[in-house]
Amino acid sequence: MKISCHLPILFLLSTLLSAQTPGSSAPSPNGVPAPIKQAQQLNSEGRQDDALAILNQVLAADPKNYEANLMAVVVLDLKGDYAKAHTYLPKAVELAPPDRRVQALRTAAISYTFSCDLQQVSAYEQQAYEIQLQEQKLSDAAATANELARIALECGDTPGASKWYQTGHQTAMRIPNLSEADRDLWNFRLQSAKARIAARQSQPVEANNDVAAAKAILDKGKIPDQQRFYPYLAGYVAFYSGEYKTAIEQLQKADQKDPFILVLLAQSYQKIGNQSEAVNYYQQVLTINSHNPTNAFARPLAKKRLGMGN
């Protein structure tokens, strides 16, 4: 969910295919080998089988290729082949250069999010968190703690979610010379988290009070870029409070490229008996090929509701 943290985009996908052949290891202009760029592009287009074919060629020639191992995890997760994806994870983490180890760990955590394996998610996220703490990257560490909290929440562990959201906030408060705007940002994130947790615990009065408190922070005007997340928060709380028409009204104002927002809209339409709109939104989810927590929550559910298995 977008409120909890700004998650780094793990794979920036090129809009153009390289002219290199799949077996070539020549780098593209941004330093990523051409076949990996090709696999990324194909994956972004929803052509996971074609992307995997290229990656298999790369790995046949070089089984220790870090980018190919990590990208294979991404592609297989989006295909729904989680068991096979996880066979690439140990090598990807092992082969990660020091400056990309956190990337590998968080990719591994997201991989296990698709199946809500919280034990594995926590193991990888906490490693990433500890590395960021040791490197004094407190903002990044706070974001990782929030990411783990959000995964715990959507996988049904509200105590774990509460613990890690608090950890994220406390970590952020340790940032030297924290500006008033940044303090408002982290307070808004924590207040938003409390609202969502209360909603999931069937405490609508507390949830709505927390939404109001989050809005009060926004109304101070120090973090205008966060205003766009309010409809998501209000829609989320309305959905879990059983107010499905209100949820739809709010969620339609939120980011329509966020697969988790789309899947909440689909479920809301299902709840009011509008199956055609529900199907429409579930289908939209499957057009998104990102590898992040929002898609890890949304994609398996959309496939299930459309009768497609994982």
Radius of gyration: 20 Å
N-C termini distance: 21 Å
What's the story with the biggest beta sheet? none
Could you give me the name of the CATH homologous superfamily of the largest domain? Answer: Tetratricopeptide repeat domain
CATH C-level class of the largest domain is Mainly Alpha
The amount of helix comes to 55-70%
Overall mean pLDDT score?
Answer: 91
> What's the total helix number?
15
Strand elements, count? 0
| Poorly predicted runs of 5 or more residues | 1-29
Note down, in words, how this protein is organized.
Helix content is 67%, strand content 0%. The two termini are 21 Å apart. The model is unreliable at 1-29 (pLDDT under 50). The radius of gyration is 20 Å and the shape is globular. It is mainly α. The longest helix is centred in the middle third of the chain and has 21 residues, at 180-200. Helix 9 (180-200) packs antiparallel against helix 10 (204-219).
